[in-house]
Amino acid sequence: MTSPPLAKLQVQGLVLVDTIQFVLNGDVIGEAIDGSFTLKDGLYTAGDQVVVRRKDNKITVGEIVVAETPYLQIKKIFYDGTTYTDKLAVTPVSDPANMGFRLQFSTPFKDYTGGPVDVEIFDYYIDYDVFEFIYTPVKTVSNVTAVFGEFFEMPPLLPDHFYAFRVFKAGTKEFPFTSLENVSEEFLGSYGSLGNLGFVPGDSQLLDISPYLSDNNGVQVIGSGYEVIDISQPFK
Predict the structure, then answer these.
(1) 25-46 as b/e, with b when 16 or more CB fall inside 10 Å?
(2) Which tens digit of pLDDT belongs to each residue from 206-234?
(3) Any idea where the domains of the chain sit in the sequence?
(4) What CATH number was assigned to the domain covering residues 6-85?
């Protein structure tokens, strides 16, 4: 009887919440937090099922199954406390002049409606003759959730122009909150920046979008705008 093929397994990626453990046949063989990943060196058998679980409460969040091929198997893992995936990919742009994005939106804010949102993208610039910000809508990315959505590309901008965005409840122009009591007026007039370093031709980013939260005498409030984090680097 032929023995199952052997494989070398590597894990990398990004873990945003707590520490996760890799467990095989009840034994912890590695851990990961932030971008730091460790895994016991050695060969694994095709068909081995490596359980991925949180260290704090031992809840299983995912599983890695060792395949028959290739010999070197690299798994790129993303876990943010809600979503676990080993299939997160950075898609290259089709035109090196463009910039590519995949978006996700989430927030622990108690008055968040939940469900999908629409991210409306604007081309904006400053008219220095009257010192006025001019925002022109150019694209809406529909039904964005807490899981990274479909890849899309944006064309290059005119000089001194930038891409900005606002977030609305899906299918509406309403903010995705059940109440505005703890949402600042500053936020209601604010825009987020699409791309942390501005427009970078040829680059692709995985952008995690959320409103800025702060504490006001024990009450969670939404402040000045949006927090945008590009987590693409570990997956390139």
Answers:
(1) eeeebbebbeeebebeeeebee
(2) 999 999 999 888 889 998 899 999 999 99
(3) 6-85, 99-235
(4) 2.60.40
